[in-house]
Amino acid sequence: MTPAIPHEATVQPVLLDARELTSDPDLWAGCADAAHRILADLVRGGAALGWVEPPSRDEVAELLDHVVSAVRVGDGALRVAYLDRRLVGLGYWLRYARPTHRPHADLEKVAVDPAAQGLGVGKALTAALIADARTTGIEVLTLDARGDNDHALRLYRSLGFTEYGRLPDFVAVGERRYDKVFCMLDLRRQD
Prior knowledge:
Elements: E1 14-17, H1 18-22, H2 25-44, H3 57-72, E2 76-83, E3 86-95, E4 104-112, H4 121-136, E5 140-146, H5 150-158, E6 162-173, E7 176-186
Helix pairs in contact: 2-3
């Protein structure tokens, strides 16, 4: 059963996992459009989410379907955040496909609507995804971030991620170049 999403104003986001999201036909039906709005707006504003141009609605829908399929076979986790029944954030990780890397996963994306930034949505999503990884038996959760994304890097450090490498001037956005920063969270060393 899907947890109730309050209609009145809330301060804390309501987090749902993929099973809860897809079991509510109304939420799932509107998720691709809402996720597209968030991702396209963020990319349009220069956010470091892996796209230079805003993704299309179809690309976002395909991505969500791919992640949900991975979740169903234990190879991923998806979390979404709602405030006032409005999608304000999403994040996911996917297990590495190579057999030698199966105990590990990559935190692919955490995106928060600019209107909800500063409310702890990103931290709540990331913490839930870490908990999902731990529960699923992931040993090491990795991610990469653009070097100028100080806010995200601070958030990841606050949750235990450590930097393990950096490629200087690796990310090209037009004429600008940014470092690609690699971070990891070793879940084998945590209680």
